[in-house]
Design goal:
about 180 residues; mainly beta; UDP N-Acetylglucosamine Acyltransferase, domain 1; eight-stranded mixed sheet; 1 helix; Trimer_LpxA-like_sf; transferase activity; LbH_gamma_CA-like; Hexapep; transferase
Length: about 180
Amino acid sequence: MSPLRAHGDSESEKCPQLGNGVYVDPQSVVIGDVTLGDDSSVWPMAVIRGDMHRIRIGERTSVQDGAVLHITHAGPFNEDGWPLIIGDDVTIGHKACLHGCTVGSRVLIGIGSIVMDGAVIEDDVVLAAGALVPPGKKLESGYLYVGAPCKQARPLSDKEKEFFRYSAANYVKLKDQYLTEHDQP
């Protein structure tokens, strides 16, 4: 069975849209109104559910094993809901959970982190492993955030900022190997 699935009624079914060179592991699931930008990758056991709102993922973004990406649906308690928007050159760590939030470009989401509804992570941020970003919180560009709930720990060094593009390029290289070995389109 394909890891890419439509969701919705027969008239408005939405299928995931993949950019050029995208790798989606057969053991992951991508459902509904999801767009994956060029050279992005989705690794084993990741779940991306755009079933009740949209998910937009930029270029060269890696969704690691066991990550869960979902939205907040529109309803009586949140009129517009919250889509999930993720920028370019983002590395989303193993078992991270992103729910109805906005993540800028050049961001590292640490292993097991949780980012809740309406939260905004600006560009050039490191969110430490196990961190919790509460609903509606905004993380300022250029800092490391740690803890649950997360707090600004310190400014990022130039070397740490360079890591964003290195990490993204490393996963592009790895997914290209998988695409070649497994003959995916």
